[in-house]
Amino acid sequence: MRKLYKMLLACAVAGTLTACGTQTGAPQGAADPTEAAGETGGAEAEKASEGDGAITLYLVRHGKTFLNTTDQVQGWIDSPLTEKGESQADAVGRGMKDIRFVSAFSSDLGRQRETALRILAQNAGPAPELREVIGLREWFYGGYEGKMNAEMWDPIFEAHGLKFDAEWSQYGELLKQMTDEDIANAIAANDALKQAETYDQITKRTIEAMDEIVKVTQEAGGGNALVVSSGSEIPTILELVVPGQYKGEDISNCSVSVLTYKDGVYTLETCGDTSYLEAGKTEEEKKQEAEAAKTAAAEPEETGKEALATGEILIPSARGTEIHATFTVPETIGENGCPLVLFAHGFMGSRDESGEFTAVADGLAERGIASMRIDFPGCNESTESFLEYNFKNMSDDLDAALAYAREAVKVDESRLGILGYSMGGRLASLYLDKEAFHTAVLWAPAASNGFDAASAMGTAAEMEEQLKKSQTDGKGVIHIWDEDIEVGAEYLQELKEGKPLEQLAAYTGNLLVVTGGIDDTVVKSITDQVLETAANTSITANLNIPRAGHGLGGYEGDQEVVKVVVDATVNFFDDNLN
């Protein structure tokens, strides 16, 4: 289904275009596309055709990307081709190797550009220079870029009396009620940032792109043109130049749609054709696919998943950056999937947390429990500025990490857990209502409401002063562990407004709170509030270690305390998730 691919695109870029080749500010108003569209698809196309031969446009959708596999919104942000996506691009290139291209086009998005270059590299003839035409970009989804598809689509489905689900089971019903124009404009209207493109904006730059493609190809004497774009943009092109002929056919990764153009008129020859892709596959690829199909027939619940890496990995974020992560999985995973624990490290910490997080992850794997640990913005291996360390960005990164894990292995959704340390304990508490976490473990959680949780960073008055300063300067300064540390305005604002105790009060799962008797960073008055508030849990346990400071042994080098903390955490998850 074509629309499915529209939903499976993703990422965030703040910018748009003027004419066909320049990127500037945010999307501006667009002219009425009907003034330029029609038989010719634009004035330039009509002009270029005069006295010139026919051209044939081979519209190819890019190869599969990481975000195509994780059900995230992908428009202008760049997600690299997966190994499968690279193989697809090479295969369709081999399938088209005898077609002599006189021109070649993609947008500036990396996934389109790499697909085009791989196709040209397989061609038997001389390869034309690849021209980047910004108007060939995928639709821009504004504030939804990089989010889970459900966040963008739930309100649209609900507005039409339908329910969005992972199988898109009611999407056909939605299409009976909405056109592409309706859908694009609904996304733009719902976008909180008001940056998503309207249908007029999309069609305006699409028409300009087609004008440029026709002009360049005609100037080359006519012939075959390679055009690589994306899963929503290709149908938009078809609907503009051959109105009514596109019937919602599946525009899958590396499928080919062919248009001919002569005497100012476009004709649709094929749509979503995968024969070039199939023809270019190697014997080994065909053999692997046959074996996979056999396995899928025997185990239908395991179909449709492309193998993703475990261990040390990089995950695309909603901001277009890379999240450094460690994904640890057990040696064997049962028929119903495995439990999964999400880790959230502390302020200026890391996904290893002095080795304690690593030890817990290893212990969980031995008990058949998978885990995902990530570095938050500005921490450890992250390449972002620490000014990007805030609760929204961290929550978004947990979303992306969880999506990756779900795609990589079969996760038992009834056995989800979360572990948060210090400020990560605050984040984990705030995150409790986003997923059905069966079990939570909080180490020294800074999880009281407002600035009270950050008393080690300054008094409430000092924090208010830095918040006020940050609203002008974009950053403030907090003092902790004998250091002055710059933090972003968003962090201070979210710290003040955050109410993790509300999530803890509503939590009904199993909770373990680990505290240190001599912790002078997250003091007893803070953790007592956590224990008192969590009154609706199935189990609430408190492990207090009298001689432990805020580092719970790890940062103090007390291996006896480390062993107590790690063993208690692993056992609590094991007892409640297995």
UniProtKB/TrEMBL annotation:
Residues 340-459 form the Serine aminopeptidase S33 domain. It holds the Pfam family His_Phos_1. Keywords: Hydrolase, Signal. Substrate binds at R61, H62, G63, K64, T65, F66, L67, N68, R111, E138, W139, F140, Y141. One of its GO terms (molecular function) is fructose-2,6-bisphosphate 2-phosphatase activity. Residues 280-292 have a biased composition (Basic and acidic residues). Residues 29-38 have a biased composition (Low complexity). The active site is at H62, E138. It comes from the Bacteria. Residues 24-49, 279-305 are annotated as: Disordered. Residues 1-19 form the signal peptide. GO terms for cellular component: cytosol. GO terms for biological process: negative regulation of glycolytic process; regulation of pentose-phosphate shunt. This is Phosphoglycerate mutase family protein. The lineage of its organism: Bacteria, Bacillati, Bacillota, Clostridia, Lachnospirales.
